[in-house]
């Protein structure tokens, strides 16, 4: 009779009976997140704790598997499918150990997940945990392959160059702009999402290159950090040839640009004094480069914009040289020495031609905005704009 009563208790409350003779509660399992550094060599254990809400008189088992997020099984960690962990009777904690592959290459802080299923003698209260592999590296991996410009051109002499062979930004030539454009030009006038933090994580130097990094890192009220540098007040140019050798990033919502703005705005506020966009790329069209001029009476822009497609594929695959050939009443855009757009004074029609004045250079890496659209789940961060040199000939 007593056993029948106990059985009915089990049926009603899902309880079992412990050694004390009191009804015991079926435990609930939860798994905790892990966030730790990647490590630089070998395999490093990321230990996920599984915990029972209460001890139980029988062993508890639960299955687990890993799932890729930006961290990929086989590449960043050792994927597990159908693993099992047992928490012995009377205990409340167990451990799921996932092996993370260490390396010395700078990456984003990538995550994967560990998912619990099929509990025995327990229920699941928190069944998905995040494993965050923290970047602990400083150097990015890239090759120097690609087009390189000649060092000299007939009829030109080198006026100024930055070969980016040092370890910091040349303050005599460049200013790193900070902020989100507010209050005067919030979101830099384009609904861009990044905050130019000015931190060494957003501009760094490696192997004779300047690297601008856009990261999905919250800062200054924005969800992304990046960098923007300009020569305003330090280096301004009128006419000549400008060569910039660079490897461009790609990905939805990634928007690198080399562009020029008027040093003195002698014809008034934008766009009346003009804007020359030497190179722009929208990360979802990684093989296409745009060259544009903005002009006109305003307040909106009148523009002439042309593009060219790199037949060899994404411009992130190799270095290319982006150039302007700029003369009185004419501007040409080139990639790897080939002209893809020519604009002359006559093309502006009855508009004032503002491009026979001095302009300064801007190099930036934007995230999101009206033209490229915003990043999505496919966008890999960090994104890197790798610049080998800027050379100005006259
Ligand atoms: Ca590492
Ligand atoms: Ca790494
Ligand atoms: Ca260089």
Automatic annotation (TrEMBL):
Keywords: Calcium, Repeat, Signal
GO MF, one annotated term: hydrolase activity, hydrolyzing O-glycosyl compounds
Repeat found in the keyword field: yes
Record-linked CDD domains: GH16_laminarinase_like
Residue intervals of the GH16 domain: 151-394
Keyword Repeat among record annotations: yes
Annotated InterPro entries: Beta-glucanase-like, CalX-like_sf, Calx_beta, ConA-like_dom_sf, Glycosyl_Hydrlase_16
SMART domains: Calx_beta
GO cellular component terms given for this protein: membrane
One biological process term in Gene Ontology: cell communication
Entry similarity comment: Belongs to the glycosyl hydrolase 16 family.
Name used for this protein in its record: Calx-beta domain-containing protein
